[in-house]
Amino acid sequence: MLYTIAAILLVLWLLGVVVFKVTAGVIHLLLVIALIVGLVQLFRGRRV
C-alpha cells in the first residue's frame, strides 16, 4: 500500500515537472513574440 502511494506521487511529480517546463517554455515564447510584434509596430508607426 505504501509503495503504491509512493509510486503514484512519484509519477505525479514527474508529470508536474514535465508539464510546467513545457508550459513555461510556451509562455516565454509567447512573451518574446508579443515583444517583437510590439517593437515592429513601434518602429513602423501606427497606420490609421
UniProtKB/TrEMBL annotation:
<dbReference type="Pfam" id="PF18919">
    <property type="entry name" value="DUF5670"/>
</dbReference>
<feature type="transmembrane region" description="Helical">
    <location>
        <begin position="26"/>
        <end position="43"/>
    </location>
</feature>
<keyword id="KW-0472">Membrane</keyword>
<keyword id="KW-1133">Transmembrane helix</keyword>
<protein>
    <recommendedName>
        <fullName>Lmo0937 family membrane protein</fullName>
    </recommendedName>
</protein>
<keyword id="KW-0812">Transmembrane</keyword>
<dbReference type="InterPro" id="IPR043727">
    <property type="entry name" value="Lmo0937-like"/>
</dbReference>
